[in-house]
Automatic annotation (TrEMBL):
Keywords, alphabetical: Membrane, Transmembrane, Transmembrane helix
A GO cellular component entry from the record: membrane
Location of the Cation efflux protein transmembrane domain: 21-193
Taxon lineage: Bacteria, Pseudomonadati, Pseudomonadota, Gammaproteobacteria, Pseudomonadales
Taxonomy, superkingdom: Bacteria
SUPFAM superfamilies: Cation efflux protein transmembrane domain-like
Protein name listed in UniProt: Cation efflux family protein
Record flagged with keyword Phosphoprotein: no
Transmembrane spans: 20-38, 58-76, 83-102, 108-131, 151-168
Membrane topology: Multi-pass membrane protein
Single GO biological process annotation from the record: zinc ion transport
Pfam families: Cation_efflux
Signal peptide segment: none
Compartmental location: Membrane
Length: 210
């Protein structure tokens, strides 16, 4: 246990981890710009959902850089904020999917396929860089979970593109949007529980000191 905590503290002070977060921030912001444009052009809910996810993750990495090296309480509070943002992302995706369902928009499968592949390569690269830090505190864990979920979401977008191409309907795109919303809410719940546990633990520790 003690060795584990020491390794996590070392990771937080690591210049390599800081550089990885900066790389992840730049990659995610760039993909947000690419995907939001492609999502509106193609009329794809899953691409729009993924673009919002990239925007949220860019903010996630920025916050992680801001609290890097701070105390457990500051990092846990940052995790709570990020988890709430992920929940809002899930709600936004569901609302957008409902709007497209009502309007009957059929997305462009080729655009979904090309942009989905580019997004997958970007997210797999980031997830690979962050893999070594996946078992840290709630803040580090939230960064890893976001990257992992992004890669899974990109695979789902590619499956949706195949489904739209094969059926000529929007249902595969809408289904994937729902799956991505579920991933976001599930990860947010995990992070919320872990962050609350860390805050409660720190409060109890402070109470014992007094």
């Amino acid at each position: 246990m003690g060795a584990n905590c020491c390794s996590h503290a070392t990771a937080l002070r690591s210049g390599r981890y800081r550089k990885i977060l900066w790389i992840a921030l730049v990659v995610n912001f760039t993909m947000f710009v690419v995907e939001i444009g492609a999502g509106f052009t193609a009329g794809s809910v899953s691409l729009l959902a993924d673009s919002l996810d990239f925007a949220g993750d860019a903010a996630n990495y920025g916050i992680s850089l801001l609290v890097l090296g701070m105390g457990v309480v500051a990092r846990a509070r940052a995790s709570l904020f990020k988890a709430l943002c992920m929940l809002l992302f899930g709600i936004a995706v569901l609302a957008t999917a409902l709007w497209h369902l009502v309007s009957g928009t059929v997305p462009s499968a080729p655009t979904m396929g090309v942009v989905g592949t580019l997004a997958l390569l970007a997210n797999v690269g980031v997830a690979a860089l962050l893999y070594a830090y996946r078992e840290g505190d709630s803040n580090m864990r939230s960064v890893w979970l976001c990257s992992r979920n992004d890669a899974l979401g990109n695979l789902a977008v590619l499956m949706a593109a195949l489904g739209v191409f094969g059926t000529g309907s929007a249902w595969p795109d809408l289904l994937v949007a729902g799956i991505m919303a579920s991933l976001a809410t599930s990860a947010a719940t995990q992070i919320l529980l872990q962050a609350r546990g860390e805050l409660n633990g720190e409060q109890a520790h402070a109470g014992h000191r007094h």
